[in-house]
TrEMBL record:
It comes from Actinomyces glycerinitolerans. This is ABC transmembrane type-1 domain-containing protein. It is found in: Cell membrane. It is a multi-pass membrane protein. GO terms for biological process: transmembrane transport. The chain crosses the membrane at residues 31-57, 92-113, 125-145, 177-202, 232-256, 283-305.
Amino acid sequence: MSVTDAANASRTRRVRAPSRGRRLTQALVPYAYLSPTLILLMVLMVIPIVMVVGYSLMDAVITARESHFIGLGNYVEILTSSKFRTALANTFWFVAISVVAHMLLGLGFAMLLNSESVSAVTRTVFRTLFVLPWLLTVAIIAILWRLLLNPNGVVNAILSGLGVVSGQHEWLADPDIALAAVTFINIWSGYPFFMISILAGLQGIPKDLYEAAEVDGAGPIRRFWSITLPQLRPIIISMALLDVIWTSQQFALIWMTTGGGPLDRTEVLSTFTYKLAFSEYDFSGASASAVIVLILSMILAFFYVRSQQVRE
């Protein structure tokens, strides 16, 4: 090979091979597209979380001119507080009953809408009626049920006519019934999400499985336990974990119906934290309570991500 040919070959390799600066630019292009989202996450999530964690380790933040580092003192005070334990117990009761009822109602209504024994017109009408609560905002749901459960409302009128109750009952102001009433409202407003998701799962189950089981002599109950539930298990687990996360952070519905009362009977972690900050102006304690709620939510989110990974 001549000297000229060697020089041309070397020049060609330099032209074809991308420069170091171009490789760096190509590597940074994806991050440039992600930068607006990353900046928003940093400003709206990361920085506030870091600030709240910092406030939880200080005393008299915001309300005093000088704050001092007290370590885990706020956490000890919150965890040993009787109001916090009451809010935690109410939250557990509220979440457990709501999630179980959402699952059972959603599964029952989904199977009804998926049944071939119901005509198409009837399924369409029921589908519209069943999904209606999910279309309403939390504010409308709270106002609607406050009117229905009013002493002069429809619920008292119907139950009085049936002889179940006597007089005008204050459902949301009765310490013995308020938490159950709020839980019922949350169940009514949340079951359509389960219903729609399970209905989609039912429609994705191959009919060949049911036909083969019927040929083998399996009855409806046997087909439900051996085919329907195993096929729906991933959907039910995912939806249940999501519902636990959402229900445990429910604030607007409780605040607009009972405000955490009466006598703290409907106090949950979200309303407890809100009152600490904006009623008692204990921003340090509220920050510690918020961090505890964040840790619990992260634990639930971890299990949800694990369930999704197993499903995939």
